[in-house]
Amino acid sequence: MKRNILITGGAGFIGSHVVRLFVNKYPEYNIINLDKLTYAGNLANLKDVENKSNYVFVKADICDFPAILSIFEKYNIDGVIHLAAESHVDRSIKDPFLFAQTNVIGTLSLLQAAKAAWEKSGGDNKLFYHISTDEVYGSLGSEGFFTEETPYDPHSPYSASKASSDHFVKAFHDTYGLSTIISNCSNNYGPYQFPEKLIPLFINNIRNNKPLPVYGKGENVRDWLYVIDHARAIDVIFHRGLPGETYNIGGFNEWKNIDLIRVMIRVTDKLLGRKEGESEKLITYVTDRAGHDLRYAIDSSKLKTRLAWEPSLQFEEGIEKTVQWYLDNQEWLDSVTSGAYQEYYEKMYSV
Ligand code: NAD
Ligand code: DAU
């Protein structure tokens, strides 16, 4: 069936994998990638699909309601997969206003545009799918998992803004009958992640013999999922999830930061042909992140039992592929760390 699907944030890390999967797997769909191209958005992430006939890129800001409304009308959008966001916790601590603006007001602007457009065109087969995070549930002690019933308890400005956007999505479902789904995923890793997040930052620093800044004692725990498995889950939920539902996505793959860092050092040193453990000396303990959540762990059994999704990649294989990708794509890494790609796109899409 022909569908016009708006993917927001498609030039970012996870969004670019979702765009690639949908463009290649569903030639019968039109995929409209809407992105503002902030520091985190990079069209080089999508070079392999940019000339496909079922793909179009639109540079726009999700907070610009009139622009969003006209995009819904122009492309006759009938499905939304909303990923555009400010996504880095450390940046949210420095600039909470930006996170409220993009993540809350931006989501509200998209919801309002979907509601207006779909009231006009009829609501059948429409879906607004919001991509969210496990951080909305707060922090766990050493036991237990986040389920879909865990009460929201966000701690950082980032997670507070994502929790708020989730609540707006639910409010539009309950108040206006908008067809919505939310998924809350754990930490993603893989190709095209901006090197401010733990895994690509540390691979890049190991490669360049730079210090590895471990927050606090390195004892915080995260549940890591390969980004392509997240994109596969998004595909399954978009097509077979039930409107009004929430789905947790995770890898049942918990790692204490310091243990994960040691794995990255081992794999990166091996692939660089260095002596085993040579880069351990780069580990540098630094002041902890303010409000640092101790542990995240997702129970994704609802997604497994109801929609038959499971992660396809074991962590050892995923991390090796990831390190290899960053080592093979040094040009990409250098261009995003130097900001060269931003200058290029500012010229190309000057507004
Ligand atoms: P990212 O920072 O790599 O990409 C975000 C994208 O959104 C960029 O392309 C950016 O240009 C775009 N964007 C930002 N502000 C915009 C605006 N005002 N208008 C239009 N586009 C804008 O983020 P990511 O890590 O790929 O995360 C994508 C989504 O998934 C986010 O909603 C995030 O909260 C969620 N999420 C991320 C993870 C993770 O581990 N990275 C885990 C769970 C959920
Ligand atoms: O859980 C899902 C979330 O995962 C997503 O919603 C966020 O968008 C994504 O950024 C990620 O958040 P985290 O804060 O968990 O990811 P980050 O890579 O920033 O940090 C992972 C862990 O590593 C965390 O405990 C903080 C620590 N850390 C991070 C950096 C950047 C360090 O010790 N040193 C660092 O330099």
Please characterize this protein's 3D structure.
By secondary structure, this protein is an alpha/beta fold. The protein has a domain at 4-188 and 227-250 and 291-313: NAD(P)-binding Rossmann-like Domain (Rossmann fold, 3-Layer(aba) Sandwich), CATH 3.40.50.720. It is 44% helix and 17% strand. The chain has twelve helices and twelve strands. The protein has helices spanning 13-25, 65-75, 89-94, 96-121, 157-176, 198-207, 227-240, 257-271, 301-307, 315-328, 330-338, 340-348, and strands at residues 3-8, 29-35, 55-59, 79-82, 127-133, 180-185, 187-189, 212-215, 221-226, 246-249, 254-256, 283-286. The chain has a seven-stranded parallel β-sheet with strand order 3-2-1-4-5-6-10, with helices on both faces. Strands 7-9-11 form a three-stranded mixed β-sheet. Strand 5, helix 5 (157-176) and strand 6 (180-185) form a beta-alpha-beta unit. The longest helix has 26 residues, at 96-121. The mean pLDDT is 96. Bound molecules: nicotinamide-adenine-dinucleotide and 2'deoxy-thymidine-5'-diphospho-alpha-D-glucose (DAU).
